[in-house]
Amino acid sequence: MSLATLREIVREACYGLYHHRFRAALSMLGISWGIISVVVLLAYGDGFRGALDAGFKGAYSDGTVIVFPGQTSLQAGGERAGKRVRVTVDDVLAVGEMPLVKNVSPEFMRDFPVVYANRQSSHLVRAVAASYGGMRSEVPQPGGRFLEEEDVRLRRRVAFIGVEVQRKLFGTIPPVGETIRIGGQRFEVVGVGEEKVQLSNYNRPDKFCIFIPWTTMGGLTDNKYVNTFIWQAATPALEPQATRQVREFLAKRYRYNPADERALNLFGSSKAHEITGPIVNGLKIILTFIGVVTLAIGGVGIMNIMFVNVQERTREIGVRKALGARRRDILVQFLLEGLATTFAGGLIGIALSYGLVWLLSPRPFLAELLDDAKRSTDIYLVLSPQLVGICSAILMVVGLVAGLLPALKASRLDPIESLRYE
What is the pTM for the complete model shown? Predict the structure, then answer.
């Protein structure tokens, strides 16, 4: 090989290196955009789930189930179908003795006229146990409290009121310690509920309700049969087993088929997750697909640029092979170049994603619909370590695929034909 030829090869190598850096920058830009798409879209999916969870959390704490007695639809034990299931307080208290049940509360519901001074309105009164507050996330405002076990045991006429009840009856007057009349009987207000978000409720939202001890309901109306009752599993994981026990216990007591789901209608935290889970998972699959396709397009761009790079560096590859480089050395060199370009773009993309997540969060969702002043049901984009790990795994696959094929091509070039390449 003449000196002039070697100089020409070096000159072309320098020229190719300049263009290679320019193309590498374009490749990193494509990968960065792809990884931003994946990260932001998946973060949006996690934020969507968080908004729904926040909406249901105001209605049911984990492991909580609300039971609505219904009518039988299957014949069992000689009993005809269509029999109404009527649950008593004794039944509810017996459910509370089960080993897999942690808390239980009967619930009687009825509308009553409520009077304070010269103001009067009608509100739904819920007669419940003290444990109801924890199961239904009834948080009192500062200076007040929810019902206590002593209130139930001593049949105290005390009331915990929703924030809308406070506005209608008291306006700006502090209600705690004041006396209201429910159905003509005097009750002392012991607390006011915090404004809370309820994506799910039955009958009406809690902020429009008044809560009293269930033991005092007998002085207002008949309280032989509960309207509903609510219980909480020992742990959220045990909710399915506890649900089966509750169904079997009441089915045996009232002689109907325990598989008859219309006899008892149950709804709680796990049921809410069953409803929202497929929606959230479907959305995340779609968003993941869009993000991965975007990232794959960036990977195809890297692959094409690497093929062009191999073509322009053909003579350089020939020189390296002529000087003793093996196929493996050429393969590793070009594969590492592809991986380095991919991961450099990925790191830039993840860094930019943090900024975008901060700028785009929160996104309006349910807060306006549910009058959520704290905006807890808006979509807060979540960039978790798990999410970054998933994106890094996707990025690794894209980098390997994008760099492997051009590297294989480069390693298989014939050194003599490479030196003759113009």
Answer: 0.68
